[in-house]
Give the backbone structure.
Amino acid sequence: YYFLSALGEESLEDIQARLAGHLGEQLPPEAARQAWQLYEQYMALRHAMEQLPEHDGSVESMRVAVLQRHDMQQAYLGTEAADAFYGLDMAYDHYMIERQTLNEDESLTVTEREQRLANLEQTLPAGMRKMLEDTRAPLTLQQRTRALREQGASEAEIRALREQHFGPAAADRFAAMEQQRAEWDQRYDAYRTQRQVLINSGLSHTDQQIALARLQQRLFAEKE
């Protein structure tokens, strides 16, 4: 992957020459030969996968496409190498397809769907589950924060929740971001109100545009 990342800046012939030299320097002759053979298999696989047709976006079409790629990877590289190269990608592809299948299953109740999605997530490798949890954490926190506020929670309780999940420094950033959003909302609401007043003022179009430009300059920074 490291050597092929230069493709486009260097010719494939030059990249292959550098790779062959690197393998010869770093590995014993037999290991270098095996590594080169794996490279050739990988390049053949890469070319073959480029010829596969695109799926049409349906779950069944995506399922077929994933199985085709998986079978092709094992056929070209062997089970061990295919798993080393693509194991995590395949696990995630299968997860996303089954997730989409559950989301489109109208026979399931909300509770049944959530339970099956949770069970499906448990089939992922531990590292990938952690990645998904980390990705969702800010949204989950936002939803819990909204729910607590609707229940009348204090700002101290909100901060305690944020510190529990992300630590004091992140809690400070969340609070600062909320303050910035609140200030923005106030300025934008003021702008909308004053803009409507100008539109209804009876001024000529040119005078309205001049007044609106001044209003924008007064309420907003240039980048805003």
Summary: The chain has a mean pLDDT of 89. The CA atoms of residues 34 and 40 lie 10 Å apart. The chain has nine helices and no strands.
